[in-house]
Amino acid sequence: MRTRTTAVLAACALALSLGACSSGDEPAAADGPITLDYWAWGTAQDGMVEAWNASHPDVQVRKTDAGGSTDSSAKLLTATRAGDAPDVAVVQYDTLPAMIVGGVALDISEHTDGVAEEFTDGVWSQVEFDGAVYGIPQDVGPQAMVYNEQRFAELGISVPTTWEEFRTAAEQVRAKDPESTLATFAPGEFGAFAAMAQQAGSQWWTVDGDTWTVDIDDETSREVAAYWEDLVDRGVIDAEPLLTPEWNAKLAAGKVLSWPSALWANGVINGVVPEQAGQWALAPFPQWEPGNSAVSFQGGSAVVVTTSSEHPEEAAEFAKWINTSPEGSAAQISAGQYPASLSGQELTLQSEPPVQSPQQEDYWEVAQRIAGETVPEVSWGPNVNVANSAFQDAFNEAVTEGTSFTDALAATQEAVVADMEKSGFTVDAG
């Protein structure tokens, strides 16, 4: 992650020619309260903004619901081209490189002295590119597994600690209750599969100078694909989309016993089956190599200052405050968002377990251990949106037609490389 700025900034002029990769304007003299526009989404934002506005009368923030990560990123690019982007915006980690390439995210290094100490190296690496800082981490989604503790006990299933144990547990669940499945392989979940490949050691995008290497179908990723293809082909794991009415009905009936996902999954489960509060628990993600507990991120976001802002210093202060202050962290935790900051994570230890897992007294201790064991570097490319779309098309076809998951990876790689070359990047196909 720390070697990409040169290529990213070069690509900004080469691929997009926006003229928007500037360092931003100097702060204007304040003759009265400054108003910052903030694009964000999620239930934690209102509380964080309210806390800031209450304690910063001279700089008020006006929040707009940006409609989610994909919608927000597309809108930010369009608004930047038109010169009317907000001052501050939430951006998912995997789309931040595209926001730098697109001239949206401002280098705020001069406003971030000492802030890196608030985060683990793995989290900070999501916003720092070759020493330049393009955002403040807000929340993190380290890989974790939530599971129906009650159903595990009923079937006599042990919580798997490795992917080999996961395979065995999946076979046991199917044998003991053919209508139930240990988990679901969702062919449209690009982020979930990417995170599992990263956990196993893959880096799908890397950059050296101005050359990008794309390795989506590397040997490690193929092994991950083959693992899931085997489970699906043998009927041990169901393959279908998540959070559909059909999937939700299975969850409600106790027929889906776990969700290998991330720390945010507990809140999603509560939204679907609140009546199962007290049944679900949190566990570390299964390991590819026994003893290697490092996990990747499945989701998470940062707050960026945009190149359109006329008040970058104040905007950067807002981004720092809501993501590192006790008030900002408290608003996150109360809304079920796991803070990226170490101080925020410490604050969770003073909180009650989430409503879906009131029986798990060590819930937040487990969460903190998981968050402290993330891989030190996760690299994303400038066209994650293309990879996401190509992955969904290829893997949905593979599940529907019964074709190879590894061929689906190769198709995704081909689409990503073709798009980058078309956009003017120098690409090594790995």
Shape type: globular
Please, what is the CATH homologous superfamily of the largest domain? Periplasmic binding protein-like II
Number of distinct beta strands: 14
Please give the CATH architecture of the largest domain. 3-Layer(aba) Sandwich
Helix count, DSSP H or I runs of 4 or more residues: 17
How many domains? The number is 2
Summarize the structure.
This protein has 430 residues and is an alpha/beta fold.
Structure description:
With 430 residues, this protein is α/β, with parallel strands linked by helices. The protein has 2 domains: 5-140 and 300-353, Periplasmic binding protein-like II (D-Maltodextrin-Binding Protein, domain 2, 3-Layer(aba) Sandwich), CATH 3.40.190.10; 142-295 and 379-422, D-Maltodextrin-Binding Protein, domain 2. The chain has 17 helices and 14 strands. Strand 1, helix 2 (45-55) and strand 2 form a beta-alpha-beta unit. Helix 2 runs antiparallel to helix 13 (326-334), helix 12 crosses helix 13 and helix 16 (384-401) runs antiparallel to helix 17 (405-422). The longest helix has 18 residues, at 384-401. The protein is globular. 50% of the residues are buried. Residues 1-30 have low confidence and may be disordered.
Task: Give the secondary structure arrangement, pairings included.
Blueprint: H1 5-16, E1 34-40, H2 45-55, E2 59-65, H3 69-82, E3 88-92, H4 96-101, H5 121-124, E4 128-129, E5 132-133, E6 136-148, H6 149-155, H7 163-176, E7 184-185, H8 190-200, E8 205-208, E9 211-214, H9 219-233, E10 238-239, H10 245-252, E11 258-262, H11 265-272, E12 280-284, E13 297-305, H12 312-324, H13 326-334, H14 342-348, H15 363-371, H16 384-401, H17 405-422, E14 426-428
Parallel strand pairs: 1-2, 1-3, 7-10, 9-14
Antiparallel strand pairs: 3-13, 4-5, 6-11, 6-12, 6-13, 8-9
Helix pairs in contact: 2-13, 8-9, 12-13, 13-14, 16-17
